[in-house]
Amino acid sequence: MKALSLLLLPLLAAPLLTVSAADVKTYQVTGPVLEVTDTTITVQKDDQKWELARDKKTKGAAKVKVGDKVTVYYRMVAEEVETKGDKPKAEKK
Where are the domains of the chain? Predict the structure, then answer.
């Protein structure tokens, strides 16, 4: 019984240790579609062009065409973090 408990503990704790995609804040941008490719959708918002990545899992993306007015829901996800650290202090002579 104790061995079974030790095997199940990591399985039960794993959901508590991971952050799901549902926990990340969702944003949106609305406007006409300027361009659609296999990997992007470009939307005009005011005087800015928003180029958003998409893939086969993006819901509704297959139906989008240039000129459609759309609302795109997206999340910001860090792909890489580079630390700069403190600058070394100059030695006094």
Answer: 21-75
